Q: What sequence folds into this?
């Protein structure tokens, strides 16, 4: 169905004009030979029905590719069958795999591609590139192709956390891109639970909406040269857990520690007192549980390292790194069922503490984020947009030339104002 609708939207102090060129539902190319009900494992059921939008920027888009894009997407949906289904409620324990399809929207913008990837102040308007999805929408995947004045596009793929973690989503997009170039899609494996876990959700402390608290999103780039300096500083302070790996902490570990410490300091300054604080660091378990073809396993194959700090004196750079490394070494889950039980057990404990502030941190570093080539070359930039929710979230992603880490921070606005002036943090930020 084609629509031509002009809409003005205000993002901060900017007005951007964009036009919807077309909107179409792309269905699987053939009926999927799978059960019409995909029962979600416990770990998928616990994860919220929040969409995770990845934005891939390309400068060399070929305008003749649109029909090829849609055809290859249709072919991939036959294999990734839950993505074309519907979740009838945000807390449903299963997906109706009725091949209803994925929404594909084309939009033209009066702004330029470089406005989004070069100008920091324009980064606040990134949300105008995203599909318009409500938390009550039954759709599990939505796609928006954004055309810019002067050429180039941003391909946005937004996937519900109910059916995919970041690795699954990136694998799906890479497969779609490969099929667009003439390849054949892989056949992924989605684990179905024998028991439905409907109405399972995070505890109120992690899931509630605090209407009076405004949140802000910022992106900060940390060059490898400065992260190496941070590593040296952490090592000089002493790390109680040094193995594995034996060559010291990773970039992600030291940056997680720095941002967590500075964010808690900002919150403490803002309120005037320290609140017990928990760090959630997500860990991809595919290589440990599915050693053969781990990329073929869809869904949420992630567990967490959880460290609760009840005393501000515990939150030092070296101590947080030590706790993270110790937590990773202690992960014992052997299958998806045990991962779900771990999530459930941790959340049941946390739900009893209404004063606890939780910081979710996840890393996409090392994932093949920049290998998504639809025939237009690799993306010049990839961004992740944090869902609009009242949770403290930090996401790490490699920079385009793999010379640093771009961190997307989603924190209370008042905390963010303080954080942006933190000299300890700014010492390691590019520019």
A:
């Amino acid at each position: 169905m084609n629509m031509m609708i002009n809409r003005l939207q205000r993002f901060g102090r900017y007005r951007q004009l964009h036009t919807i060129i077309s909107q179409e539902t792309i269905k699987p190319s053939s009926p999927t030979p799978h059960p019409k009900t995909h029962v979600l494992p416990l770990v998928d059921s616990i994860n919220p029905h929040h969409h995770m939008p990845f934005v891939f920027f390309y400068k060399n888009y070929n305008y003749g590719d649109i029909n090829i894009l849609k055809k290859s997407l249709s072919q991939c949906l036959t294999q990734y069958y839950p993505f074309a289904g519907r979740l009838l409620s945000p807390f449903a324990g299963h997906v109706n795999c009725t091949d209803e399809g994925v929404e594909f929207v084309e939009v033209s913008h009066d702004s330029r591609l470089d406005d989004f990837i070069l100008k920091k102040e324009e980064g606040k308007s990134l949300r105008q590139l995203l599909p318009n999805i409500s938390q009550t929408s039954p759709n599990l995947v939505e796609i928006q192709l954004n055309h810019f004045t002067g050429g180039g596009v941003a391909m946005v793929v937004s996937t519900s956390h109910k059916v995919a973690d970041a690795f699954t989503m990136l694998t799906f997009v890479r497969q779609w891109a490969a099929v667009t170039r003439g390849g054949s899609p892989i056949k992924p494996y989605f684990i179905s639970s024998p028991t439905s876990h409907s109405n399972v959700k995070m505890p109120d402390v992690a899931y509630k909406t605090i209407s009076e608290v405004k949140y802000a999103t910022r992106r900060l780039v940390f060059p490898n040269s400065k992260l190496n300096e941070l590593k040296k500083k952490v090592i000089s302070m002493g790390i109680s857990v040094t193995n594995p790996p034996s060559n010291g902490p990773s970039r992600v570990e030291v940056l997680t520690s720095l941002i967590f410490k500075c964010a808690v300091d900002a919150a403490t300054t803002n309120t005037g007192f320290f609140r017990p604080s928990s760090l959630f660091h997500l860990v991809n378990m595919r290589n440990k549980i599915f050693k053969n073809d781990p990329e073929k396993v869809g869904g949420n194959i992630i567990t967490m390292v959880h460290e609760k700090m009840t005393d501000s004196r515990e939150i030092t750079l070296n101590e947080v790194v030590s706790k993270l490394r110790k937590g990773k070494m202690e992960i014992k889950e052997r299958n998806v069922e045990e991962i779900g039980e771990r999530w459930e057990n941790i959340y049941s404990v946390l739900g009893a503490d209404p004063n606890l502030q939780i910081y979710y941190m996840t890393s996409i570093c090392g994932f093949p984020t920049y290998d998504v080539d639809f025939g237009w070359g690799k993306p010049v930039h990839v961004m992740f947009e944090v869902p609009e929710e009242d949770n403290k979230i930090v996401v790490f992603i490699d920079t385009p030339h793999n010379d640093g880490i771009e961190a997307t921070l989603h924190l209370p606005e008042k905390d963010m104002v303080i954080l942006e002036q933190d000299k300890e943090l700014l010492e390691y930020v590019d520019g």
